[in-house]
Amino acid sequence: MKGNRTYMDIGAILDEVFEAAKDFGEKMNEEFTKGPGMPGFGPHGPKTWFDFGQDENADYYPGYSYPPMNIFLTQDRSIVFEFAVAGFDERDISLTFQGDYMVFAARIGLENASEESVRYIKRRLKLKDIEKQKYYVPADKFAQDLVKASFKNGILKVVVPPKEESATPEGIRIEIVKEGE
């Protein structure tokens, strides 16, 4: 069975889990708002699910999934980062190296409308600032000074080539002399 490997789509699995969590929240909201007089709901009528600390516009995806990205190695041993940063301007994106880490950050330049009056039916596109994210790019393995970054159609592609392996010198031969001669 070595040749027949099945791969799971983690993104699709997470979509199902987070959609189920949202559905659960909606069902809880329906149950909690059926009518007054239900135990534990206080004198001012029923509370909604969101009154119990849940935010209806909450981001159900974990923080590490924003922005969506790919990291891979090419045949020439370059490490490639692809960030999906639609809606961002390349002038608002910051890439630096600090030691063995590439630090990525971006600021969204759009003026956000007041979201208090907006109630989303489905919200998957959330443009928000990207705080400093660190990616391990060891300086002894990759030529950080030769990095190339390109921005096209909302995709930021960063290619860090490997360091050229210098021919290891044979070293200095140490002659061993017998004492007393």
Name a few traits of the molecule.
single chain, elongated, alpha+beta, about 180 residues, Immunoglobulin-like, 1 helix, three-stranded antiparallel β-sheet
Task: Report what the structure shows.
The termini are far apart. The chain is of the alpha+beta class and 181 residues long. The relative contact order is 0.13. The protein folds into two domains: 6-59, no CATH class; 61-164, Immunoglobulin-like, CATH 2.60.40. The longest helix has 23 residues, at 10-32. Strands 1-2-7-6 form a four-stranded antiparallel β-sheet, with no helix packed on it. β3 and β4 form a beta hairpin. Residues 39-43, 48-52 and 59-63 have low confidence and may be disordered. Helix content is 13%, strand content 23%.
Question: How would you sum up this structure in a few lines?
Answer:
The protein has 181 residues and is α+β, with helices and mostly antiparallel strands.
Known CATH architecture of the largest domain:
Sandwich
Q: Let me know the number of strands.
A: 7
Helix content: 10-25%
Query: What integer value in Å does the Rg equal?
Result: 27 Å
* CATH uppermost class of the largest domain: Mainly Beta
Biggest sheet, spatial arrangement of strands:
1-2-7-6
Instruction: Give the ordered list of helices and strands.
Output: HEEEEEEE
Largest sheet: 4 strands, antiparallel
Morphology: elongated
CATH topology of the largest domain: Immunoglobulin-like
**Helical region count?**
1
What's the structural blueprint in terms of helices and strands?
Layout: H1 10-32, E1 69-73, E2 79-84, E3 93-98, E4 101-106, E5 130-136, E6 148-152, E7 155-160
Antiparallel strand pairs: 1-2, 2-7, 3-4, 4-5, 6-7
